[in-house]
Amino acid sequence: MFPKWFDKWNDDNPTNIFGPAIAVGALGGAVFVAALIVGFGQPYATASMQTGPRGTGMHVAEFEASLAAGDPTVIDFYTDEPFVPEEGEELAGDIYENVQVLGDLTDANFNRLMGAITQWVAPEEGCTYCHANAADGEYADDDLYTKVVARSMLTMTRNINVNWDAHVNANYEVGVTCYTCHRGQPVPNNVWFRISPVNENAEGWSANQNRATMASNFTSLPSDYLEHYLLESDDGGYNMIAVHDLDSRVQQQPGDPLIQQTERTYAFMNYISNSLGVNCTFCHNSRAFYDGAQNTPQWGTASLGIIMVQEMIAEHLLPLQDVYPENRLGPVYGDAPLAACRTCHQGYQQPMQGLNVIANWPELNVLEGPPDYSAWEVAEADPEPEAAEAEDMDPEADAPEADEDPEAEEEVSE
């Protein structure tokens, strides 16, 4: 078919055609995929939020599809405006028995808040989840552990809103309610228990790591970082969150961070990143992670959040150890369920994507005494300020009608 010289040349110069064929096929496939993306859109398009100077990798990237989907639990948040108390109105503490936390509320606002808590925590179970004899109209007894726990949770929620304003309202008023953690469930998602040690080793030291656990976010990092940093140590303080010494070849001293502390810190930071749906540079400067002075403002907010969780666990959650029934305790140590960043944030930079959940609930924004209802008093005094303002600004409001004589009106005015 081909000339003899052509066949002879091919025999003398054998060529591997598979390499070029693969290259041409790969190039053609890439062109085809690029054409699909241009024609139908990028299925994994991302949006970036800049967190620092340009060109330094200071940004947080998120999938546009995830941003558009939003938090599905936001739509189920129940809220209702309060009733402005009238002078001399009787309080819940004087009407009902055994009201220990919310006794300074009026009857209307007390029952309004009780109804909201039911929707936030136990919408299917209803009032009987905390009040065993609610069907008989008896609410005073403390027969159920859930009522005792709820009382402590109300105190904790008030403390967070009042004393940790710098964390929960770092950008603008957001606040927290029972729904922030519970999301319509009696037991919130993302609570945690002590589980260390996670390894049973025949010899050597496991370092509580190298097991792909949920606590370690399925990495080989240590799984005990939450209890190591959020629970009080034996000396009554908290372990230092640190990675390394700033100087090289430093003589190690007792208490200095070791490699396991470094890996625990990485595990804790990984947990915070997953809890908020962000990366490292949301809080840290890409060139000096260790230096708080060079980090973003979010680093300060997160640092306050860590201290807030430490206090919350020590003062409100651990004391409930003896209140919970056995089925609510941890599987290893029988300890009380504890909270951390993911319990509230659930994958978003702000819980419920920054929804102001405290706006209509001044009852949860006071430590003790009657709440401040002044914002609603003003609204009731001037129920339609926007309508009145619109009427004042209407250029046709004072204009003469078509059958009126402007000059005649002017003469009458004079």
Quick rundown:
With 414 residues, the protein is mainly alpha-helical.
Content-based structural category: mainly alpha
Identify the CATH homologous superfamily of the domain at 72-181 and 355-384.
Photosynthetic Reaction Center, subunit C, domain 2
Number of helices: 15
CATH architecture of the domain at 72-181 and 355-384: Orthogonal Bundle
User: What is the number of E strands?
Assistant: 2
Distance between the termini: 116 Å
Q: What's the CATH C level of the domain at 72-181 and 355-384?
A: Mainly Alpha
Strand content: under 5%
**Low-pLDDT regions:** 395-414
Description of the molecule:
- With 414 residues, this protein is mainly α.
- Among the domains are: 24-69, no CATH class; 72-181 and 355-384, Photosynthetic Reaction Center, subunit C, domain 2 (Orthogonal Bundle), CATH 1.10.468.10.
- Helices cover 39% and strands 2% of the residues.
- It contains 15 helices and 2 strands.
- The chain has helices at 4-12, 18-40, 64-69, 92-95, 107-121, 145-163, 165-168, 178-182, 225-230, 259-276, 297-317, 341-345, 374-381, 385-393, 406-413; strands at 46-50, 59-63.
- Strands 1-2 form a two-stranded antiparallel sheet.
- A hairpin with an 8-residue loop joins strand 1 (46-50) and strand 2.
- Helix 6 (145-163) runs antiparallel to helix 11 (297-317).
- The longest helix has 23 residues, at 18-40.
- The radius of gyration is 32 Å and the shape is elongated.
- It starts with a helix and ends with a helix.
- 21% of the residues are buried.
- The model is unreliable at 395-414 (pLDDT under 50).
